[in-house]
Amino acid sequence: FGNAGQPIYSGAPFAALQNVIPVSINFGFPISPFATNITERNLAFLDQRAALDWVFGGDLSRVTIFGQSAGGYGVDIWLTGVWPNDEVPFHAAIMQSGT
């Protein structure tokens, strides 16, 4: 299993070349971390939402989410899931290799 602390996920090279501030997070990974119903206990999305609320003070106009592999699947759920008030805490999304 990978984690956000691995050198391959460092955002430093990207930040040096672009006008961005990469933020990598780890999220809970229970047996069923990605439930499609937000009312279910869902540690992965609770962790991701907490991180999104923290990044830039939750200013969704400044946040693009990106997910690779299982993270890509998470981005897909963020885009297609049912959320309270139809509100998602980002303005753009990138999926890579969603499983």
UniProtKB/TrEMBL annotation:
SUPFAM superfamilies: alpha/beta-Hydrolases. One of its GO terms (molecular function) is hydrolase activity. Residues 6-99 form the Carboxylesterase type B domain. It holds the Pfam family COesterase. Its EC number is 3.1.1.-. The keyword Cell membrane does not apply. It is an enzyme of class 3 (hydrolase). Transmembrane segments: none annotated. InterPro entries: AB_hydrolase_fold (IPR029058), CarbesteraseB (IPR002018), Carboxylesterase_B_AS (IPR019826), Type-B_Carboxylest/Lipase (IPR050309). Keywords: Hydrolase. The keyword Hydrolase applies. Belongs to the type-B carboxylesterase/lipase family. This is Carboxylic ester hydrolase. It comes from Periconia macrospinosa.
